[in-house]
């Protein structure tokens, strides 16, 4: 495995619940052509399905029913990760970001020349939460019920996700 790993932890800020599990960023996972195709087929091979290709919403949101993987298939984008109190992460084509359930994320405004390939462990259905007070109880209950994935979306049973999340 020839890539760089970064991890980030974010506390519940009262709006975005975030997670006690770290966000994992793999830098320079795949540098050949057709990155989006490679990410999608690799995610599928490792059980991270329900895939899509698009950009990231430009407002803080999170998923309370599943973890999420984001592979940058093309371009560069700066994301706000961890909610308003989080960090700005600039990710480039070939990078992979693994977000635990509950971790806020959004693209910064004015960015459109990039493509993300997304996926979810075992193809789980995702919800879209924005941290409203009326949804907080349900979101926190849902997040606690999300199982740990059995595989890393890139490296299967050999991936670092299994080390960092277990």
From TrEMBL:
Gene3D superfamilies: Jelly Rolls. It comes from the Bacteria. SUPFAM superfamilies: RmlC-like cupins. InterPro entries: RmlC-like_jellyroll, RmlC_Cupin_sf, UCP019307_cupin, YjiB-like. This is Cupin. It comes from Dyadobacter sandarakinus.
């Amino acid at each position: 495995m020839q890539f760089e790993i970064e991890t980030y932890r974010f506390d519940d800020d009262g709006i975005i619940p975030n997670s006690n599990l770290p966000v994992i960023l793999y830098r320079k996972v795949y540098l050949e052509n057709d990155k989006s195709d490679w990410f999608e087929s690799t995610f599928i091979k490792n059980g991270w399905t329900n895939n899509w290709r698009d950009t990231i919403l430009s407002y803080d949101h999170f998923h309370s029913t599943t973890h999420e993987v984001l592979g940058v298939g093309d371009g560069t984008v700066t994301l706000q990760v961890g909610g308003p109190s989080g960090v700005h992460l600039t990710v480039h084509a070939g990078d992979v970001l693994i977000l635990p359930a509950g971790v806020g994320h959004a693209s910064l405004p004015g960015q459109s020349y990039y493509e993300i390939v997304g996926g979810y462990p075992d193809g789980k259905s995702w919800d879209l939460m924005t941290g409203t007070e009326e949804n907080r109880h349900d979101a926190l209950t849902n997040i606690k019920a999300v199982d740990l994935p059995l595989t890393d979306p890139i490296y299967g049973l050999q991936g670092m996700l299994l080390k960092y999340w277990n």
